Amino acid sequence: MKLLSDIIFLKRLVLLTIVSIPAFASSGFSSTQQVIPQVDTTKRAGVKTGIKSNPSDTAGTSDKIEYSAKDSTKVDKKGGIVYLYGRARVVYQGLELDADYIMFNSKTNQIFASGKYDTKGKYVGRPIFKMPGQGSSLADSLRYNTKTGAGKIYQVFTEQEGGFFSGGIAKKQPDDEIHSKGQTYSTCNLPHPHFGIHITKGIVTKNQIITGPVYLKIEDIPLPIGLPFAFFPKPNKKSSGIILPSPGEDYTRGFFLRDGGYYFGLSDYWDAKLIGSIYTGGSYDLNLFSTYTKRYKYSGNVQLSYSSIVTGSEGTKSFGRQKPFAINWTHSQNANANPGSTFSASVNIRTSSYNSLTAAGNTYDPGQLSQNILGSSVSYSKQLFGGLFSLSTSARINQDIAQKTIDLTLPDVSLNMTRSIFPFASQTSTGDQKWYEKISVGYSMTSSNSVRSSDSLLFKKETLRKFSNGMRHNIPIQMNFNVADHFNFSTNVNYTETWHFQTIRKTYFKATGGGSDLTRIDTVPGFNRYGTYNVGGSVSTKIYSLAQFTKMGNLKAIRHVMTPSIGFSYAPDFSTLSKGNYLMSRYADGTPVPNPQYNPNNPINGVQEFQTYARQEGMLYGGPPSGRSANISFGIQNNVEAKVAVPNDTTGKGEKKVPIINNLSITSSYNFLAPRYNLSNFNISGSTPFTPKFQVNYSAILDPYYIQQGVDPLTKATTFTRTNTYTWQRGKLPGLRSFSLSFDYSLNPEALKKKNLNQQELKDQNIQKGMTPEQAEAMALVSRDPNAFVDFKIPWNFAFRYSFNYNTNEMGKQSRITNSLSFNGDANITPKWKVTFDSGWNFDTNSFAITRFGIYRDLHCWDMSFSWVPFGTQQSYSVDIKVKASVLQDLKLSKRKNYYTRY
């Protein structure tokens, strides 16, 4: 079976080889390939050719033969023969021929060209020939009849589209047939290739190609892999055809014929491939692949996959059949196709069992197999009214494979003003603006239609009836101005209008036997709207402080920049029953439902006597906010950097800035109208760079309220109560509710080298080298962070990433710690050998994450790769030896042992 598969691959390669033969037929020569331009070593600057061109023959098709030679020219008038020696050149009817030796017989109309052996026995000065509109070709020698157009070429070497033809003889007949014998096709660019497909003989006509035996050669050793003969049509366009399957065995599904089907060459811009796999255990796969493109407009591809997987053994309880599927679609639009509008798509939808049952579509890709969250989107945007508005529409699907849930949004529409307008600004006034001319107005609108469901119920009727939809409009009115050149003031009024197309009604039923009350929620269709507004303002400034040092070694100064800000906002209470958005919770008999948190002895705690609910509860945007708020928000941002001397600077004045703390911010707010817990949590975030390549990012949330510990008098269990007392009033620090820390780092030899040149000296050197400012900046970027750029000359590299997260509940209990550590690296053992690895540590299981080792060997025109997952549920290995060039991608030898899903 493997031999049959290799023969099939060879058949494809021979097709690629021979289809390109006619490309040279029109040249009047017997070579079999069009080539890219090569260096013509026979032409040198300053050599007098002696050729007299015909000015009126612009096409180079004159019947006059023009010739020249550097060393000597010998003419035999009696025999009608011209001999050209040393960098000889002949031009005839567009033919350009250069060689060390050329002979032309005017009586027989024969041209012969060849090279010569130098004093060291090396064959030099080979013929180089070229026809109009084609590249040049190289050969050992050639003959050509100027009258009949027939000719022979010996040991030709040409190149086209990554393939090389070498050796053998090719002959062009007067009837335009080409006869080829003993040529080798290969993607190896050496004159003596490491491997190739040897074509013993072949005939090329206008519409078809017929060959004799063809076989594969590696290091001049013929292999028993070939075809006795072949026949191919030449449609000169994409052709449809059968794709033969590959045989094999799967541990759980049995023997198989995989990836067989049909290719549809629909047009130059659209094709499709339908392939399938069948297993002796009763399972099968179907896949449809299609790519499309329209030049300067768009391009994309589509993949539809469907499988029927038999699980368990027939006759047992575990026997069953599952039908996973997957949909993939990508589409991108050329930026210049439709200025002002864009359309893009990235769709990745699959059933939750698809990856595990099909081994990620038979790819055994660890990245896909460990993926739990899938996201898909299709979006369209357009600029309106001269770019003043931007309209965006999209459809999104977020799929949680582990939870088997899907969030579907169809559609999501937004309309936004790209810039604010100043309705009171004068277009003709000069001088400073009036205060009212600084008032700006904006607008934004969002509309959405979404639902959450399990993946098995997504397209059921009951799910489609649960779509939540609505629309929200926002109009911000703002005015900015400066005071005393140091303070930035901003005032704003925001109005928000919310629309829903259904509301809810709640009905409570009293429980019997001491249980909880039951609640029935009815959805009432119909348009519903409510409006909210808030007013506010803010002020910010910057405070600079500088400490200079003279006796602190290389430390010269430390600068601290603080950016304090304070803001105020007010919003009324929109939850009063009189406004109609909130309703009283009532039992079926109409009596109000009491609020269990109500304390008649403390009626000022803000808790109502009876429960209420918003009519929009559970809808897309929910109901209006409850309770008045008068918030003062405050925060401070800090940046600290040091100025240090560069001791190796030759000018003695070199200094550089070293950041110590970046964007360390602390924010919070205080609500004057809240009945309790007026002060919100403190949010802290920032980063500290230890080196230009190593930076630690951190954030935390602190709770300012004291947690009182007590004992339940009935159960004697320990209780915790969040009091309205600040922790510092009890002599304690605020409680830590969450903390996160992350960093990543990479090492390689270039990162460990010290940079001794200061920036100014480097800039001067770049100028001396003639660099533009843009080139100098690019070089400086590489110098600052060499790891950001790939350099295969670096002998080794090691990188790792770590993140830490700590969280508790509101009472500071039920803490949870999560860690994530991953690392990877590679090393060049020799210039041709590279070793790679990637892994991580799972702190929950105290074990390694998916670990993979790889070895790569460069074999010139071939390469060898080895990949190994030594342990875990996905342990596997693969060895591949293949041709580098994509045109011969099927010429490979693979051995792999994949992990198999246990059903």
UniProtKB/TrEMBL annotation:
Annotated Pfam families: LptD_2
Keyword Signal: yes
Ranges for domain LPS-assembly protein LptD central: 209-705
GO CC annotation: cell outer membrane; transporter complex
Keywords noted in UniProt: Signal
Cleavable signal peptide: 1-25
InterPro entries xref list: LptD, LptD_2
UniProt name for this protein: LPS-assembly protein LptD central domain-containing protein
